[in-house]
Amino acid sequence: MKLLQGKSGAEPGPKRLTREEVLTWLKEEEEWKLSFLWQEADKVRREHVGDEVHLRGLIELSSYCRRDCLYCGIRGSRKIERYRMSEDEVMDCVRTAQKLEYGTVVLQSGEDLGLTTGFIASLIRRIKTETPLAVTLSLGERGLDELREWRAAGADRNLLKHETSDPELFRRIHPQNGDSKGPKIGDSPPEARIGRSPVQSPFSARGALPGFANPRVELLKYARGLGFEIGSGVMVGIPGQTYQSLADDIKLFRELDLEMIGCGPFVPHPDTPLGQPEGRMQKTEGRSQKSGAAESQVPATDVMTTKVVALTRLACPDANIPSTTALATVNKEHGRELGLERGANVWMPNLTPLKYRAMYEIYPGKAKAIDTAEQFHQNLLATLERIGRVPGKGPGGRKEVI
Ligand code: SAM
After folding, report:
1. Any residues with Cβ below 6 Å from ligand 1, and which?
2. Which of 246, 262, 371, 377 shows the shortest CA–CA distance to 323?
3. Is residue 29 exposed (0-12), middle (13-18) or buried (19+ Cβ within 10 Å)?
4. CA distance 370 to 6
5. Among residues 167, 165, 164, 156, which one has the least CA distance to residue 131?
6. Quick check: 242 and 292 in contact, CB under 8 A?
7. Cβ-contact 306, 38 below 8 angstroms
8. HSE on the CB side for 59, CA within 13 Å?
9. pTM value?
10. Which ligand 1 atom is at minimum distance from the Cα of 159?
11. 33 CA distance to ligand 1 middle (Å)
């Protein structure tokens, strides 16, 4: 397939795709042509990160959230029953991760200030002293001092999806962003880097990142400067998303030199503004930033999502890329395998106690799990065996390449 053929003598690694080529692949619908993309992504995955599938145990600590993201089932304004786990409850989940030989636990939650800086720091210290596990934080947009304290406590990774690189769309779907209690006056960032170049400080005298289109990207750069491995990602098919902006997302993944990249389909939640047919209609017509011309909406399908996974693997060959639960939700039968066969090398099994799962329903179908962590693990091992892959050993951080 011409678009995937590298020139002889070119730089090592997969052929670098141009923006136009990425766009062509994103719009490609012929299954026989796409099979070349799947094969190439699988080959690059095997050559760069091998056949191991790293297992990261997901612990959803709290469903409280101060944000009101237009797409999310646990958005703050929803009147739903909420929970926050105790340290001992979290540690029980951590022990399960250890017993099942996972290499990492991911501490995820709504943006909940009730999870105080000290609580999270103490939890990290306990996990790091009592287990060999790597700790990933996925707690939303938290403060710079907090990130610094959590890094000092031993946290290894920070995961914060930038969701979309289209600044206008980002603003529309994150209405309360101006209220961020994130970066603030007096917080002086360390020398952050994107790729190899130092970046200018994003922090203004007023503290709430005005002028920075996507505060999540700035927080990621800051976390990188503190020594965290950093992870981002997008929702594929979020209403208003254009092919152009999705190509920009893939470009941004590479520019940020991310260690982890999570791309799942947008799954409409009926009790959110973007889950309503009229909400979706209003946001559906994307506009190209550059030309101003109306563009078509990216579909939130399994095929579209795996195109993004595959192209991300080609753009970022060494990254850790999960086959997401959202993908397994839109294609219940084969979604997980499709992700793993089209570029992904990470699986994030859910360790949250069953009694809390229904209260962390960010989209429908996600929380219906009835399997305990142990039962789920048996199915996971069978799936990996069926597709010729093996569970990863150890924390599964970024491999150092020379
Ligand atoms: N509060 C943290 C944050 O915002 O990063 C972590 C929790 S948040 C629920 C985790 C991820 O869920 C988000 O980054 C978003 O991509 C995803 N998500 C939320 N609602 C979704 C939906 N309706 N469909 C697909 N993914 C969704």
Report:
1. 71-72, 108, 110-111, 138, 140, 160-161, 163, 235, 264, 266-267, 269, 326, 362-363
2. 262
3. exposed
4. 46
5. 156
6. no
7. yes
8. 28
9. 0.89
10. 5
11. 32
Distance (angstroms) between ligand 1 centre and the Cα of 8 equals: 42
Choosing from 235, 283, 308, 330 the residue with most ligand 1 atoms within 8 A of its CB, the one to mutate for a pocket test is 235
- Do 241 and 286 touch, CB atoms closer than 8 A? yes
Splitting the chain (402 residues) into consecutive groups of 10 residues, what average pLDDT does each group show? 57 82 97 98 97 97 97 97 98 97 97 97 98 97 97 98 95 70 36 29 36 85 97 97 97 96 97 84 46 73 98 97 97 96 97 94 79 88 97 82 64
User: What is the DSSP annotation of 89-124?
Assistant: HHHHHHHHHHHTT-SEEEEEESS-TTS-HHHHHHHH
The atom number, within ligand 1, closest to the CA of 65 reads 1
Mutate which of 74, 260, 362, 363 for ligand 1? The one with the most ligand atoms within 8 Å of its CB, which is 362
